[in-house]
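User: Sequence in, structure out. Go.
Assistant: Echoing your sequence, followed by the structure tokens.
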Amino acid sequence: MIDLRLLREDPDRVRASQRARGEDVDLVDALLSADERRRSSGSRYDELRNEQKTLGKQIPKAQGDEKAALLQRTKVLADEVKAADAEQGAAKEEADQLVRRLANLIDPAAPIGGEEDFVTLEEIGTPRDFAAEGFEPRDHVELGQILGAIDMERGAKVAGSRSYYLTGVGALLELALVNMAINQATAAGFTPMITPALVRPAAMDGTGFLGQAAENVYYLEDDERYLVGTSEVPLAAYHMDEIIDADKLPLRYAGYSSCFRREAGTYGKDTRGIIRVHQFEKVEMFVFTTPEEAEAEHRRLLQWEKDFLNALDLPYRVIDLASGDLGASAARKFDIEAWVPTQGKYREVTSTSNCTEYQARRLSIRMREDGNKVRPLATLNGTLVAVPRVIVAILENHQQADGSVVVPEALRPYLGGRTVLEPVK
């Protein structure tokens, strides 16, 4: 949630943020109205309660007509108190619902526009010229078959479309990437975590995934549980309803989990291979820090993502997402897109978001500083490795003419020293 005090003091800034996101601007005025009704009815309730207390002291001392009048007033006052309390409760409920629909304020430095209006911050590495090397690159599906690493056919037979098996060196490659990511994260001071894949509604809603992203979330109605689409959700909720001492910040966690996404609205997109699937494994970085340090921490998360991809010798670019392409919780978001040779374009492999105080307010996570001062902290997240897409990038960028794939040097210790993935016989 955003700070209601900021909304009251500078509603135009909130309107501008909603407009830049392509979200409902009228929501701002509806919330202002509900908040004003809540505050005025609360004041009215307090005034009436004070009058009740005053009458309670006057009645024992009064006599005759005066006492009768005071008693009559107490009856009327009881109804007025009840009505004011009901009005206050209704206005509060409406305001609470509306503020949870309002997206985070965008960072003033974020580009304005839609999905295609991102700004490229840098390009790292040079895509290979396969034509100059004398062969046509195979895509990851064909390479996966040659290496005995990916089985799409049986994945679809068992689990339906957008499902797959990683087999042989494919399974080993996933485990190697996860271990490499966890090792890098722990070396950087992150606490490794294996997180729940099922969460309560409060955790999913608190991180902001039941708004615009709700259509992609799996819900188990009988159990009132959600399957997470990222370990960001259980990591964010880990300190839900807690107060953390400021001197313990930043708290950095690296969560490994399965991720589940319905991929609603993507009919016909990436139907071949493992770029867009219903289940995949991921290592996610998550940070709790002070609001003042959040921007610098965001840059650190981006650098850790770059370090990982640099170690894998993958060409990529870093983009600054435009306002209309941000999730509801993110004030600013950087994506890293790796080059996919057979598609001739960059595809997202990691992202990192600065969510400022938005998630912390929703999850009631605060920091204590200067002895007793308590206020919301900031949360940030960043993907260290989303396994299937990085496998795609490794196979396609490091393939050889015979269908073998050179293993990046940094990954070799996690693959038992293999230098090359060889075609199966």
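User: And one key feature?
Assistant: The two ends are 57 Å apart (CA to CA).
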